[in-house]
Each structure stands twice: as structure tokens, then as C-alpha cells.
């Protein structure tokens, strides 16, 4: 009998990712599964899908969420869905864009 599994995220998710206003940050939430062919989809809390179009400031690259030139409006909850033939798993992270600290 072949062992088959729906996607399972490898790491416990961060509950919050703090990003400094105007800076860039990446977050990786890789999953494992058998069969190993996994498709990933990132969405904002309002169910807006994050594009893999590099022309945007916030883009997805499989399990990686990239935020470039972070703005206060980028703050919020981001959900990732990992799917294979056996099912879908979901994880989320709260992004908190903070003002730069004064020296």
C-alpha cells in the first residue's frame, strides 16, 4: 500500500510578521504531501487572490509571499492554501506594517 497524504505545512506558522514601512519582506510557508505535486494560492482576508504577476508590490511565488515597499494598507491577514489530489490545507499570517523607528 502506498502512503498518500494531503498537504501539511512543514513549519508552524508565524502568527505575525512585522514589516517596516517602505521595506521588503518575504514569508515562506512550504507544505509537503504525497503525491508531492502541490499548488499554492495566497489570498487577503477579503478573499482577494494574490497574483504571481511581478508587476505588483505584493506577489506570490508558490509557497512564498513577497511584499515590496510595504505600505500601511498591506497590513492584515494573508491566507495560504496548499492543494494536491487528496485535499487542501490552509494557514494564515497577520502582516503588521510599522512606521520606521526614529534614532
UniProtKB/TrEMBL annotation:
Leader sequence segment: none
Classification via PROSITE patterns: IG_LIKE
Ig-like domain location: 7-96
A single cellular component GO annotation: plasma membrane
Xref: InterPro entries: Cell_Adh-Cytoskel_Orgn, Ig-like_dom, Ig-like_dom_sf, Ig-like_fold, Ig_I-set, Ig_sub
UniProt superkingdom: Eukaryota
Keyword entries, A-Z: Disulfide bond, Immunoglobulin domain, Signal
GO molecular function, one term: axon guidance receptor activity
GO process annotations (BP): homophilic cell adhesion via plasma membrane adhesion molecules; synapse organization
Descriptive protein name: Ig-like domain-containing protein
Organism annotation: Euroglyphus maynei (Mayne's house dust mite)
